[in-house]
Structure formats: structure tokens, C-alpha cells
Design a protein that fits this description.
Four copies of one chain form a homotetramer. Chain A is of the alpha+beta class and 480 residues long. In chain A, 31% of the residues lie in helices and 19% in strands. In chain A, the strands form seven sheets. In chain A, strands 1, 2, 3, 4, 5, 6, 7, 14 and 15 form a nine-stranded mixed sheet that branches. A four-stranded mixed sheet of chain A has the order 18-20-21-19. Chain A has a two-stranded parallel ribbon with strand order 8-11. The longest helix of chain A is centred in the N-terminal third of the chain and has 21 residues. The first copy, chain A, starts with a strand and ends with a strand. Chains B and D meet through loops of B and loops of D.
Chain lengths: 480, 480, 480, 480
Amino acid sequence: MAGAASRRSRDLTPDLLEYHGEHVAKVKLEALERLADRPLAKYVVVSAVTPTPLGEGKTTVTVGLGQAFQHLGRTATVAIRQPSMGPTLGIKGGAAGGGYSQVVPMELFNMHLTGDFHAVTEAHNLLAAIVDNHLFQGNALGLDIHPLAWRRVLDVNDRALRNVVIGLGGAEDGVPRQSGFDITAASEVMAVLSLATSVADLRARLARIVVGYTKGREPVTAEQLHAAGAMAAILAEAVKPNLLQTLEHTPVLVHMGPFGNIGTGNSSVLAAENPEDVLAGSSNLRKQIENVRIHGVTPVVAVNVFPSDHPSEWQAIEEVARQAGARVARCRPASEGGNGVVELAEAVAEAAEEPGEFRFAYAEDATLREKIETIATRVYGAAGVDYSPLAARQLEDYERDGFGRLAVCIAKTHLSLSSDPSLKGAPTGWRMPVREVRASAGAGYVYPICGEMQTMPGLGRHPATFDVDLLDDGTIVGLS
Amino acid sequence: MAGAASRRSRDLTPDLLEYHGEHVAKVKLEALERLADRPLAKYVVVSAVTPTPLGEGKTTVTVGLGQAFQHLGRTATVAIRQPSMGPTLGIKGGAAGGGYSQVVPMELFNMHLTGDFHAVTEAHNLLAAIVDNHLFQGNALGLDIHPLAWRRVLDVNDRALRNVVIGLGGAEDGVPRQSGFDITAASEVMAVLSLATSVADLRARLARIVVGYTKGREPVTAEQLHAAGAMAAILAEAVKPNLLQTLEHTPVLVHMGPFGNIGTGNSSVLAAENPEDVLAGSSNLRKQIENVRIHGVTPVVAVNVFPSDHPSEWQAIEEVARQAGARVARCRPASEGGNGVVELAEAVAEAAEEPGEFRFAYAEDATLREKIETIATRVYGAAGVDYSPLAARQLEDYERDGFGRLAVCIAKTHLSLSSDPSLKGAPTGWRMPVREVRASAGAGYVYPICGEMQTMPGLGRHPATFDVDLLDDGTIVGLS
Amino acid sequence: MAGAASRRSRDLTPDLLEYHGEHVAKVKLEALERLADRPLAKYVVVSAVTPTPLGEGKTTVTVGLGQAFQHLGRTATVAIRQPSMGPTLGIKGGAAGGGYSQVVPMELFNMHLTGDFHAVTEAHNLLAAIVDNHLFQGNALGLDIHPLAWRRVLDVNDRALRNVVIGLGGAEDGVPRQSGFDITAASEVMAVLSLATSVADLRARLARIVVGYTKGREPVTAEQLHAAGAMAAILAEAVKPNLLQTLEHTPVLVHMGPFGNIGTGNSSVLAAENPEDVLAGSSNLRKQIENVRIHGVTPVVAVNVFPSDHPSEWQAIEEVARQAGARVARCRPASEGGNGVVELAEAVAEAAEEPGEFRFAYAEDATLREKIETIATRVYGAAGVDYSPLAARQLEDYERDGFGRLAVCIAKTHLSLSSDPSLKGAPTGWRMPVREVRASAGAGYVYPICGEMQTMPGLGRHPATFDVDLLDDGTIVGLS
Amino acid sequence: MAGAASRRSRDLTPDLLEYHGEHVAKVKLEALERLADRPLAKYVVVSAVTPTPLGEGKTTVTVGLGQAFQHLGRTATVAIRQPSMGPTLGIKGGAAGGGYSQVVPMELFNMHLTGDFHAVTEAHNLLAAIVDNHLFQGNALGLDIHPLAWRRVLDVNDRALRNVVIGLGGAEDGVPRQSGFDITAASEVMAVLSLATSVADLRARLARIVVGYTKGREPVTAEQLHAAGAMAAILAEAVKPNLLQTLEHTPVLVHMGPFGNIGTGNSSVLAAENPEDVLAGSSNLRKQIENVRIHGVTPVVAVNVFPSDHPSEWQAIEEVARQAGARVARCRPASEGGNGVVELAEAVAEAAEEPGEFRFAYAEDATLREKIETIATRVYGAAGVDYSPLAARQLEDYERDGFGRLAVCIAKTHLSLSSDPSLKGAPTGWRMPVREVRASAGAGYVYPICGEMQTMPGLGRHPATFDVDLLDDGTIVGLS
């Protein structure tokens, strides 16, 4: 969740844009080159303390903060992830912010936008079809069916697709095997697209994607399957960022939505806690502030004020923040728009002037196990890490296959600093169970999957989708 | 495959359009109302004799014909289906026509366009997720797991997904059952969108979709599952037609791509046959002309001339057409553009002035079995129809459930007039095997699946996708 | 269902027997050699008209007839199939006959006996395990996974095992594929054991069993998989027939229980029809008598008299039999034992003196299709045969693989002369649908599976098993 | 593996036996009552140090010891488990002992015997069929499909059956769900039969078998499914022990073959170690001696001497045993029969006179977790126990369901004292991973499954079965 304060957005002249309907544009990639000599902006990351299940307002604060900088006479561009339609139509409803701090048009933002997620789905599943076709056509590369890691993706919350057997039927219907679907946001293609710095880099990263291994334990890549070119072609439009705006006309760049955050830095923290959670919230906030500093970044604590909160709660939070030596400011983005976030914007601007340099929490030449254990103990407060036999075997394989120098991104619940969603505050003494480790060789990182966290969500008993409808005049209702 | 000669396209003023990039626009639905008082155009349908596996040039002739009308001083708008990305990246390569008779920009036309197919995929699979979630949450409606007809769709050629077991895993992973995927073009949602006459009609048709039956044999609809509203919302943009143009700037409406043709009328027929196939081709052509007349329409035969053809072949075709009493004209759309199709355009214009009225091949109050048997024997030349036990049971159920008055659309191979792709010409004496009958209650028709025809294609040993690539400057290559 | 009148059983001296408990013995195979010079007995086959779902008393009449010959001063040995535990514990209850015409001890006869069925299960499933192990170990023979015909068997009515996916799990858990279970009685090993004439012939037939095909369409045999030797060893005891006795001490040979009858000859026919079924019963009886004669055998009609029958029914049956030129006799095996079957025994003895020679209904050099169609039309009264695409392909393959000269044994419901259990009497004008054709190369025949007939039964809502129990003193109750 | 020295076997007069062929008898259950007043014999348990993969000769020593007692003028009866046909035809070859210390006839002993294992298979699978039929017939008890623990069994090494999806097909083919097969020896029915003290107790234990849980977490038993009676009836013969003899005519009781040992007592220990393994062997032997004493039993160490061993190895073993305070004796059962085991028999007889009383390693009122952890740390030398989330949940459920007082039997590899087959000697510092815990409520114990241990073995690349054959004269070759 990132809000970038930048001088650049005003330079996105119409000839660098392609319009998609009346409210959305794609930015041509030649903008990168055309604007290369402009000064760099400051990059402000908005994160949160451990949230309630309904979210906590990161987007609203981010949008409000972007708007607020304009009230201070500064130019800012908001940069946020595109919402995933699965959760949007599942539990969350819309993800455009709220009240006077929203991205518009909300309907387009929440659904399809310019089709980038769909292009990821298409490219990902084309590779899957090519993998299974390779097996079907005689398996010339000798792909081993078992560690065949390339699953399929859909942008729908659909637990029934987590574990499937495919290739059933008759002689013309493929090779039977176990597989499954993840949500599109969890696709390695999504991560590749997020990290690509040019068309050539996109093509090269796709080529490096490892779909599985031969029986002799050699990795097999998308390039070997002749799939990377077509995947890149499918993503030709998706690689261009989308430009929208806030209710106060602040430019908003929307591009991709990788599953989970990469990096754990936090520059501002929000709390809307119940009274009984204050103690837990305090330890959580203190630990989050510490974690921001671990990465060499200056933290600012934002208190997202709701009319129904108790002032005593705000004061308690401010007290904790000050004791931890962090700037703190209240804000009211939903009810007051940018105007209600000016105080926070000033604190952020001040913090941004402080010297500081981002650093990884772990040494870059550490082994994968060392990196995982450093994050688990230093950032999350674990007492140690337990690996399943599968995870242990995978880590060994990745080191041997030359993936030991990749970055590590922990996939775990966001409902706790630990891997157990029921542990609140800043839990210690727990052990982080790693049940599986996946390598995204194309994207360039390895991600351990910890605890019972899912890469394909399910729908609830009354999913958000039940309330969404299309009126006869074409108006969409039910996306909040 | 339809080419509509119309006066309307010039009336699509900019305020009725929404641009999507620099070469594509969506037409706002208010155009329907705004242009309601303009005179109706003539509707020319381009079909073909039984084709070779590589296709036969229907799109090229259609585009050429549209261009040719402008050379005659008449206004024409071409209307064609959006290509399915599965076959485009599978066997066919691009589907934009060829040579000087093409739709541009070919890359956008062939891939994604404005995302309508992806919206269909999303809406269809959301309904599937809701169906499986309903089972998982306790199955309050008592859905019977066995005749649960609602499958999932992807716009990828992927035979490994034809027959799958889903819902495996643990207690949190859904209810195990057999299911499968079709290609997006075969989705009932695609058909619904093709047939919808307004937003309200779209919403109503989606609501009527039958996903399965209760154990007491009552149909269960998308509306009962609270899914139709969200599906309609997902399709809010897709319902608007797309506007592109040909190389000669003839407007081209591109909208949806239902699987197989609905209706069997043929107004013009193309042949590019090898000498040894002339005899078979003749009987096929004669039967196709007869089939056009069965529906009350005047046929015109087009001979799509390739430089490598023998003139004797053209003459043979012309002789057959004339004996059958049909107009005939040679055309060269790929090598000469609209100019090479003027003679054909004149013949078509002449035929369009003849009186004629479209009629169904069968009586509309016939039973489903009678309709199937009429089409099989009268249009396809079958000696009779054989039903599998499953198909027989389904037809009985549909009649009982009140679907007996729906139209019938035969799903069978397009590589023969029969259901056996190896039978060329106009085969007789064969029996049409109906292995399954699906009801698209929302779209409003029933489709028997005949012979070994698949609703999910597979990839070949060297799929088209292997040749597609994205160059560093963003150029897509390999889509012909 | 066979009752053999023979002088041999008295020659089975104790040194040719191995006792299994106090009431059952196995006959050593050296008896074959030792008794080779004794005169051959007459072979009397007991069959029935189309039965009611509860059976019709074939075993009771057979046992009664065997007992009756002793009353005539003739020596007879009863030979019957061992009951399958699946149906015994499913729908049928015991199969030992009834009243005063029973095989004893009924509990041992109905369950396990000397374990022959279990040995078939073990040998069959060992071959299956070796097949899947061959795939797992690298598939050196190149077995094609798809036409892999060798399923598994269990002697339990268990519909949930008809269609399964096996080999799931991880890298150490085999190769995923679709397969299924049949009931043990349907095993080709059971048929092989029934037809084997010596240990050497058993070993040779097992070796010839075809489990599947290579990708180059070469059949793969049990011998190639090094399985035939161990299978034969497993069957070393099962190859010896079991000797029991009736309540009147008539010897009873019990050996094997192949699924369905091989051959369609009928020497005596039973009826216990309801009044309203008399007309249907008449045509059925007439057709059954005709079918016996087609095979060159002399028919005798037995009327199995129940106290609750109407005498008018008996007379109607006798009238039909006489019109058809067949001997007819009433019998009361259940209520009167052998004494009640003397009249029938005399009629059978008389018929057995008539000249006659068994012949196949079809020419032995006919193709498989011709054989199937001859049986369907001449014996069952069908108007013709419809083959599914799968069945058509299989027949083509079998002819090509050299199995075209094998015998044909139709697998269909026994509840009708047709393949549709709802058609009573002697139906005509129906077409026999062949959905699959299996080759038992080891047993030496090909069997088309017709209609919706199952090779693995299911349990009903209140299966027989619910009433079976073991009392504290070791008495088994609930097997009737 | 048990060898019982008893005065009883001579009292098994012929009227208490039922012969099964010429070499095997079943003992009638009335023998229990008839011999109730005879004095109790001493019970000698033969176990081993951690073995080589090929086994270590426990049966040979047991048989030799039984024979040796006769040389001492004492009466002894050998009691051993019936071999499982899966491993016999898989990796092990025969299990009848070797050389002059064998059970005869070896062919019958190794395969089928009197069919007891097959009866267990049949009873177990009948219950499974009834469970799936219950789901199919409407699931009146509301069985939850997910913790549905009752799998199926076969006495074949068949890894492809470990994880399967069953109930596929159509509406008549059952309810799809995940399940799997274990080897028959692992069946709870096998354990029930091993532990039953009478027919009534057998019936009662079968009735208590828990097959799964309702959605409200109530256990569902075999009795509730009306299955226990039929299961008991199927086991009516299997409940009787089998009587065979050794080559020296010592009586041998053979009955059941539960998977893994129940109880961990060791009264005599065998070693045949390579020189380089002496050190590891020493620590293993020391720990095994300690473990015997933990249970209150007096250990005797047997050195099973092979001609190819080095005398220095024997001396090393004897030194270790003596240091640990245990009696030690060399023996040569294979080459010399009972005569070569006299010295060991004397040591055993002497030890048997010592006072001692068997006790559990854990307190009987401990929780299941406490029991598991006591065995892991005290007997196996583990540093602690790790539970998978599944195992933790299951233990919680079992305590709640009232199974907390059941005994605990650890299921783990026999190739190490630890749960990791690669750790030799007496490893310490390792943690025992419990991946799943199964409750055998009928048998009366709970068994945690530790490490990667399988309940269904697979076949190797050249399974024993390849060498087994049946000669034309009926001789079986290739076993042992």
C-alpha cells in the first residue's frame, strides 16, 4: 500500500496517455524514458497495525494523505494496488477508500479496470495449458509430475478449486494429475509484472519462471516450453500503469496487485481499536514501529479518527507512539478528505527530510533458512521456525538449484504479527510453522507459506456479491 | 459470421463512443435509443461450405465485402465475432481476416480487445464459485450434486480441464465432486450477452440461468443463488459493442463470440477446393444452397479466388451454383481488398432486394426431439438420430421442466455436414448420435452435443502460441 | 447353474480329499487322472425364465433334482457355483437352496467356503498392484495409461468403488489415473479358474491375460509383467473343487462363480408367476424353449410349485410348454426334498437319452460383430445392435490384435431377455446398446457390456447384511 | 513376535481341532473353557535390536527356541503372527523361519493359511461399503464427510491405493470423496480380532468401532450402521487360532497379524551386525535392554550366530550385554535346529524364574499427549514431540470424546529407535513428529502415526513376487 509524493504526475501530458473510457487512462511506457531526467520523489509507504478482519482504512488514509499534500502546496501522486475481484466480490466490498478520500470511478476501479488482472490470468493459465499439453504430447523434457508446481489461477474466491484432480476423461483428455488453483493475485506472473522495469525485463523474467523439474531434478522454465513469448504478448497492455484520480483530483496510479506485501516497512500506522484491545494494540504498535526502524526508515504514526472512537483511545495510542520516539498525528480522511489529513501530511513531510536508507532485515548472502529465521525472529517475534518435511526438502532443492540468493517474502496471515491469526498484540514464544516453500524464480523471490494461510480464498455464508446488482439504467449498486 | 450493410454506422457520433486506446471504441447503449428511428439495414450472413481444418476465409470475404460496398457508393458496417484467445493461441493464429481485407489493429482485435470475454469468464466462474459455496455452506436449497450442470470456463485451449474432480483437500476446502471446464466461448453467459436486447433483458436472462436441480427435480436458478445481480454488474461494460475498422476504414462492430453459429442460414458460400475434392465439394455446396433456401433466404455463392487455384475449379463451382439456381461471383479480398469484391457485392445487393422471409426449419411448437430430428434429417441429411441414455433422460426432464418450447441449436463438428468429421460432401444414411443435451435456459435454447465434439479444445504438438512473441519495443509478432 | 448326473462321486475316496473343517473337503487334482477311465455322465443344465428380482429358485430345483435321482436309484452329483459374498450380504441373503432342498452347512457355503473367491481377489489385485508399480517404476514397457483395462476387484457390493481416481498423494504414492473396482465374480481370474483344465493350463491362461496396451498398440500380458507365476501360486488351493452335500446327502461340487452364465443353453425352466404376468411369462417361456433348441439341446420345463400359487397358473404354463413340444413336470423341492422332484427327474432322464449335440448359435469363424449380432437377434430377439464409439473402437482393436476368434459372452441384465430390465416377456423391435467391450484373453472370450448393467453392484437401503449376526455361542443368524 | 512356553498344547486333543487340509488345524473356541483349569505357562517375548532392512531372524530364533525347550524336556508352544501376503509377495519372501528352524508347511503358512486375513479384509470392507452406502442413501445420521476415518484395506502392497477419490461416475455411483486403502494388517478389525477374548467380546468390540463423526461431532459406530453383526459373522471362523508345527514337531499357534507390535517388551535380543556397525549396535542394544527393564521384565540377549560372522563381533555383543547386567547366549537355529538353541533356552528358563511384573511405561490415567510423550522420551530417547495441526486437533477431539483413557501404541518405522529410519544406534536429541493420530475405539487404543511411515506399503523394482511360480505338478517355488 504505497502513496508516492512526486513531482512527476503533472508531466504526464496527454500524448503519453491512452484513454480507456472517459475516466481512466493507461500511461505509455515511453513516459519512463521521456521523464527520466526529472528529480526523484520521496516514497511514503502506508501500512497498519494488525487489522480487524474488515480492514482498517489503509487505502482511505493513503488517498487522504495524497490529497492533503495538495493543501500544503506540494504535488503528490497516489500509487495503490488494483483490487482483486475475488475478495471485492467476496468479503471486502470495494477497495477504493471511503467518504471524501476515494478513488473514482469506484465501479471501474473495483472491477476489471483495464483488464490487467485478466491478462495475468490468461498468461498464467496459458502456461499451465502448455505444461499439461507437454505431458500429453509425450513429455519430451521428462517433466516429473510430482513437484509440478505450476498451478492455475482465477480471480474468484473459490475454495472448491484449491485441490483438484485434472486430466480425467479418456485418451484425448490429458494426463491425470493433482493440481489446484490460486487467486490471480497470488500468480507469479502478477509478481513478475509488478517487478518488471521494461518490456525486455518482463520478457526475460517470464522466461525464467520455473514450472517444475525433470526426473533428473533440472528446473524446467517457461522459455523451454516456448511459452514466454506468448505470455509477454498477452501482457503487452497490462504492463502499462493505469491513471485515475481521487475525489479531489489527485492523480492515482493503479498497477497490479501482488498477493501480500513485499517488504515489511511501515511509515505510518493506523489504529481503531476497541477499549479492551488497547493493551494488545499497544504492544503491536510498539513492535510495528520497531520493525520500521529495522529497515532503516523513519516511522510516523497516524491515528485514523472515527466519530465513534473514544478520545481516551487516541491519547493512549499517541502516548505509545511518543514513548517509542515516533511522530504521531490524527487524521480524518473519510469525513474531511485531504483537509482532514493536513496535520499528518506535515508530519510525513518532516520525517521524509530525515536521513535514512532502506536496508534488508537479513544479510543478502544468508541462506534461505537464515533469511526465513531472521525475519521470523527479528521482525515477527517468533522463538524459532519449524519446517515440514516438504518445506525442508524444497529449501534444500532451491539452494542446490541456485535459488539460494533470492529474496525471501513470508506468506502468512495478516491478522497477526505471528502466523496464528488468533494471537493478538506482539506475541512472543511462538514457533513459525513453514508448511511449504515456493520459488518464484521469474519474480526473483522465494516465499515460505506459514501456518494455515490460503492462496485461494473461499466465500462466506453471505458474500458481498449477494448485494451487488446492475440497475436497468446501467448503474452498479452494492460496491461500497 | 455476419456482415451487416447498414446506414447506421455514420450516425455513431463521438458522444456515443467511449475510446479504449487510440484505435478501439465502445458504443454506449444509449445509441440504441438515439438511433431507433433510422431505417433498418439489410442483414447479409456470410457462411461457408464445409471447411478445411485451417478455416476457409469467411472473415476475409466478410471484410472484403464490407469494403466493396463502399466502392459501390453504399454504406456498410461489418459485424463479426470477437476471436476466442484459446483457438487464436492454439491452432488458428489471428482471426482478423487477411491481406487487404483485415480488421485493425490486429493485435488488439485478437487478444483481450476491451476485455468482454474476460468479463464473461469472470461472471461465469463467480456463479460456479457461488454454486460450490452453496454446497459447502450446508446446501440449503438441496441441490443435487449429480445433474449439477454449471461447469467453469477459461479462454484457453486446455484439454486437461475437460474433466476434473474439485473440492478435494480438507474440511475447509469444499465439497468433492466431478465437474469440468469449457472454453469461454461455450459459456451460456456468452450466449446470454449475445442475445440480450437491453441491460434489463441481460439481467433477466442471467437470472433465469439454471445451474442444476434439487433432489426433488426442481430447477435452481442463478437468481435463487443471489448471483445474477453481481454477474450483471460484472458484465456492465461487456454489454456495449466494440467499434473498430477495416484497412479501408469500413466500420467494424465486434461483439461477443458464441460457440458455434446459432441458426444455420447461409447467404453466401465460399470454396477453395483441391481438384480431387471437387465432387465432394459439389454435393456439399448443393446441400448448403438448399439449406439456405429451407430458411427462406436467397443464397449467393462467392468463389474466394487464390492465385494458386486452377481456373477449372472455379468454373466447376460456378456451374454447380448456377444449376442450383444461385447467383455466383468470384472475389479476391486478400489480394485486392474491397476492389476485388465489387462483383460479389453487386450480386449480394441484387439478392437482398428479392422478397424473402426467414423461417425456422422446424415448427416452433414441436417437441425438442422433433426439432432435433428435423434439423438432423432435413438440414444435415441424417437418416435418424440416436440418443444416449443420458440424453434421452435429459430431454424428458427438459420437457417436464417447461423447456420444451426453447429453440434447438445443434452442437457438432463444423468439419462435416454430418456429426462425423471424416464424412465429406453431403453424406446421407448416417445416424446422428446425441450424447448429451444441455439447456441454456437463460440464453433461451437447448443444445444437443453430437458425436465426439468437444466444448473445450486442446493444444496441438506445435501450437500457434509457440510463434507469438513480444519484442523489446512492444511489438507483438506471430499473430498472422 | 448346473446339475450333473454322474457315477463318479462315489469314486472320490478319502485319500482324494482334503478336509476343511468337519463338513467340507477339497478334491485333490490327482482325482482327474485317477478317475479318467470312468464313463462320462450326462450333464443337465438348470436355467430359468426371466426371473423376479428376488430370484426364482434355480438352486432349490437343482438340489432337489440331484436328490430326486437317488430316489430313482441313480447316482447324481450336484454342481453349483459358489455364492458371491457381495450379493449374499447385499440383496440376496443365502444361496444354498431352500427348505428340504439345501446345501449344508449353509453358513460355510455362503461365506468364505474354503477361500477360493478370496484367492481370486488376491491374485487379481496383485496383478493390479504390479501394473501400477510398473508405471511407478518408470514404465519400461511403455504401457498406455488410457486403455489400461485391468481394474481391481472386491467381493463386496460397493458402488462407491465403481469409478475411482488412484495414485494420488505425493511423489512416493504412484501414478494418478482413473480406474475402478468390479465385484470378484466379474474378475477374469475367476473365469480363467473356471475354465482351466489343469495346473499347467491355469498357469498358461493367467500368462495370456492382457492388462493393457503399449502406446504402439501392442497388448501387454501378465507374463510380461512377471505376474502370472505368483498369481498361479496364489491360486494353488483354489484350483481344487470343493465337495459338500445336500440335506439328503447327495454330493455337491462347488467351484468358482463366474459373473453371468457362459453359454445360454436351458434344459429346464421354472415359473412362479403372478396371474397378471401369465401372458408375458408365456412368450418368455416359448422363447427360452426355442433358445435351448437353437443350441441343439433337448428342453424340459419344470414348474416349481409353491403352496400359494394358483393351479390355473401351473396349467397355463404346462399348456405353453406342451404347445412348444417340450416335456413338462411339476416339482416341490423346498417342501418335499428329492421326493417332490421325482417326476421331473424322470422327465429329465428321458430327455437325456434323446440324441442331441451342443452347437454355438453363431459360426465360429464369424467376426466379433457378427457373433454379437447373431446372439442379439437370434437368441434375445433384438432388431439390431448399436455400438458406442468406444465399443466400436474396441472391437476394431480386438480383431486387429488377433482376438477376433474368441467366443462372445454377452453381459447384460438377467431381468429381461432384452438389455432393458423393464421389458418383460419376449420383447422384439428393441436395439441392443453395446457401451463397452472387454476382452478376457486369458479366459478366452470377449464380453460386450450392454445397457446400464453394472460389474460392481451397490447396496440397497436395507441390505441383507443388516439382519446377519453372530450369537455369543458362535451361531450365525440372518442368512436364509 | 511371541514364543509361549506352555504345558497346554498337549491337551489340544483331536476333538478340539478342525482340520484344514492335512497339515493345518483350527482350534475350537471351546478349548478355552475345557482347558481353563490348567496351570498358566510362562510367556517369553522375542524381539530384536533395530534390524537391517531384510529382517534379522526373529522368527527363526523363536522357532528354534521353541524346539530347544523340547531338548530340555520341557513343553513349549510357539505362537507367531500370520504373515501378511502383501509384504510376503513384496519385499520379504516367506516368513516361516529358516533352515532347521521353520514352520511347515511353509506354502500354506505364507499364503492364505485358513483365510483369516481374507475374512478381516472382507469384514473391514463391508463396513466401508455400508458407510458409503449410508452417505448415498441420504446420510440419515448426518456423517461428516471430512473426518470420515474408515478407509478400506487389501492384503497387497499397493501404493497406488494410498490416496484415492471414490464415488465418481454418475448419480447411481455413490458420493464423491477422498479416501484410501491400508494393508489388511493395519485394519482395526485385525487388532480387534487379536484382542478379543470371546465371541461376545469380538462382537462388542466390533460394535464400538468408530467410523467417523456427525457434523455435531458425535462419534458414529459400526453398531449404529447395523454392520457389527455381519462383520462378526464374517469373522466366525477367523476367531479360531490355527495350529501348525515346526520341523521338529513343536506345536505352533498362528493367529492374526496386527501391524506393528503392540507393547514394547523385549526378553531376548538378536544381533548380526557388520563390524563397522558394532558401535551403533552397542548403544542400540544397551537401550533395548533398558527398555525391557522399564516394563518390569527380565531380558536375555541372544546372539544369532551365522557362519560368516566374526567371533570378535559375538564377543563385543556379549560384553555389552553383560555390562548391562543381562544374561546372554549364542544360538544357531537355522543350521542346527532346536539343538543349536539349547544354551539360550536354559538362559531363558532361568530368567523366567526371576520375579518380575509387567507394567506400562506410562501412568494409565495420563492424558494421550502425556502417554505419547512418555513413550517418545523414555523408551525411544526423543527430546520431545511435535504435533501437526491435524494431530493436535485429533488428540483434543479424542480426549473430549472419552477416548483419553485408551492405551497408546506408537506407529513408526521399525528401522530405528527414532522415527527417522536413517538414525542408527540409540539416537538422542531428535524430536518425534506426529503427523496424524487414529483412534481404534473398538480395539481399545489410539495410535499416533510418526514420521513418514506408511500404512500401505509399495512394491519395489523387483518385488519378491517376480520369483514366485507354480509348477505343473502343483509345487510352489520362490517363497523364502
